Amino acid sequence: MEEFVSEQIEVEQAPTSPEPVRFTWRGRTYEIAAILACRVDTGFGDLPQRSRRWYTRRHRRCYTVKDSEGTVFEIYLDYADRQKRTWWLTMRRPPDR
């Protein structure tokens, strides 16, 4: 069963690419065994039409990843503020047993 999380996490990226290799959530480190999907989100979300301007767009790189135990996570890098990039965990789905 999927669990909605919405918490900030710490992520270690590969030295030669922006892809995540491990992340820490609630004091535990998860090794990323596979990146299942990657997409860029530059949409407006739920903003009303009158508020949609180029500067109100999202700037996120979203990943669906699987850890070494088979748990699937959805994480994203919010890079709207280039000075303070933040990673977020949005969903956790335990492995099928």
Q: Tell me the number of helical segments per DSSP (H or I, 4 or more residues long).
A: 0
Q: Note the run of SSEs as H and E.
A: EEEEEE
The structural class is mainly beta
- As residue ranges, the low-confidence spans are none
Q: What is the terminal separation in angstroms?
A: 11 Å
Shape: globular
Mean pLDDT: 83
User: Mind summarizing the main beta sheet?
Assistant: 6 strands, antiparallel, barrel
Count of individual domains: 1
Measured by DSSP, the beta-strand proportion falls in: over 45%
Describe this structure in words.
- Helix content is 0%, strand content 56%.
- The protein has strands spanning 3-13, 20-25, 28-41, 60-67, 72-78, 86-93.
- The chain is globular, with a radius of gyration of 14 Å.
- The mean pLDDT is 83.
Tell me the layout of helices and strands.
Layout: E1 3-13, E2 20-25, E3 28-41, E4 60-67, E5 72-78, E6 86-93
Antiparallel strand pairs: 1-2, 1-6, 2-3, 3-4, 4-5, 5-6
List its traits.
mainly beta, six-stranded antiparallel barrel, 6 strands, globular
Q: Could you write a compact summary of the structure shown?
A:
By secondary structure, the chain is mainly beta.
